[in-house]
Design brief:
Blueprint: H1 12-25, E1 28-35, E2 39-46, E3 48-49, E4 54-59, H2 63-70, E5 73-77, E6 84-95, H3 101-111, E7 122-135, E8 145-148, E9 151-152
Antiparallel strand pairs: 1-2, 1-5, 3-4, 4-7, 5-6, 6-7, 7-8, 8-9
């Protein structure tokens, strides 16, 4: 966690490196979805970053899955208001038995939980970010976009 008091803003390349480091190291992410009739929904989920996409898993009957199927555009946020990382992308839903084995195995290894073995149906959500914003405090609001149209800025 950072205290947000750094006086000299990080350049784009440093922000992108820091963001990638956090995506590879952290466990929890806030997932925001919306349904055309039911409105917004936000929950924290465990996540795995595979170097290109965020993988999460939740119950097949959850509002998160229902919303993502109706409106795949989602927003994700790492849980630190002093070191903000926000991702936007589209969620692709995979029933647990249809998720790519490599991704499901990596998820199970990371969390000691294999959703494929659950009695209740589970769904993996895969989000490839299209836009990423990162900043620490007001001094870094300018230049906070570190990924645009799916490409990391340097």
């Amino acid at each position: 966690m950072h205290d947000g008091t750094k006086k000299v803003p990080r350049d784009t390349a440093e922000r992108a490196r820091d963001t990638l480091e956090r995506l590879g190291a952290e466990r929890d992410i806030w997932v925001s979805t919306a349904h055309p009739e039911h409105g917004p929904h936000q929950v924290p989920l465990w996540f795995l970053w595979d170097g290109r996409a965020v993988w999460m898993c939740t119950g097949a009957g959850s509002a998160t899955v229902r919303n993502a199927r109706a409106e795949p555009r989602v927003r994700l946020a790492l849980p630190d208001a002093l070191d903000v990382v926000l991702l936007q992308g589209e969620a692709t839903c995979f029933p647990a038995q249809e998720v790519p084995t490599e991704s499901a195995d990596a998820f199970a290894t990371a969390f000691g939980w294999d959703p494929r073995l659950e009695e209740a149906p589970q769904v993996y959500l895969r989000v490839v970010p299209r836009t990423v914003r990162a900043w620490r405090g007001a001094a870094e609001l300018k230049g906070r976009v570190v990924m645009r149209e799916g490409a990391w800025l340097r």
